[in-house]
Design goal:
single chain, 240 residues, alpha+beta, Glucose Permease (Domain IIA), nine-stranded antiparallel sheet, 29% strand
């Protein structure tokens, strides 16, 4: 034996040991693969055996109570189909309505828009007049300084045309409405407050008053006190 071992060198022994290890690894890999194969085969055979046993088993016999329970459980499934169909119909109707609405909207958009203009109220023009047949009363109890029309003007000391009548006094006096009407305007100017009352026949204007007792929109009756003043320019304007 000693002579036999002496024939191999150290390098040869290394190759022999390396080859033996490789063979051992190959055998181990083969053994592991075969083990996996056996496990897989046994698992498939077990599953087949269970399937055969389940097929061989007879279905359980249901009693009347069990059948009633199954029928009760089955009823909701049958009923669920009805709402599904109804919901589909409702969805279809909504889609049709939406489509019809869009068509109407497009049709309306394509039509030219007609702008209806309300007829404008005709403008009424007025002219100053000296007297009106329906007006018989004076606007105050003070004596008239000058009347409407051409006459002497004590302020300018000449003859000129006046489109109003003038009333003056040292003490304040009441200004009276000469006819029924509505206060159309009440504004303040440099000379004082001016009140305009609208009547059926036209306007009556009371200018240069000191204290106004009415406001725009008030309904006025004939003879009502509308202001207090020491100077009044009174004029009548008739609608043309």
């Amino acid at each position: 034996m000693k002579k036999f071992f002496k024939k191999f060198s150290q390098n040869e022994w290394r190759r022999i040991v390396k080859s033996a290890l490789v063979c051992a690894l190959v055998l181990a890999a083969v053994a592991v693969s075969y083990g996996y194969y056996l496990v897989d085969k046994m698992s498939s055979e077990y599953n087949q055996a269970q399937l055969v046993s389940l097929q061989d088993e007879e279905p359980p016999v249901l009693s009347n109570n069990d059948e009633d329970e199954q029928n009760v459980k089955a009823e909701p499934e049958d009923k669920t189909t009805v709402p599904t169909i109804a919901a589909a119909n409702e969805l279809e109707e909504e889609q049709e309505q939406s489509q019809a609405f869009e068509e109407e909207k497009q049709t309306a958009a394509s039509k030219p828009v007609e702008i209806v203009q309300e007829p404008a109220e005709p403008e009424v023009s007025y002219e100053a007049v000296g007297a009106i047949a329906s007006v018989n009363d004076a606007p105050c109890s003070v004596e008239e300084t000058y009347a409407y029309g051409y006459g002497y003007d004590p302020i300018y000391n000449d003859i000129r045309f006046h489109n109003h009548a003038l009333y003056q006094a040292e003490a304040s006096f009441a200004v009276l409405a000469v006819a029924d009407g509505v206060v159309e305007q009440c504004q303040t100017t440099e000379e004082g407050t001016e009140i305009t009352i609208k009547h059926q026949w036209g306007l009556s204007v009371y200018a240069n008053v000191d204290e106004c007792l009415v406001k725009e929109g008030d309904e006025i009756t004939k003879g009502q006190t509308i202001a207090n003043t020491r100077t009044l320019k009174y004029s009548l304007w008739q609608a043309k």
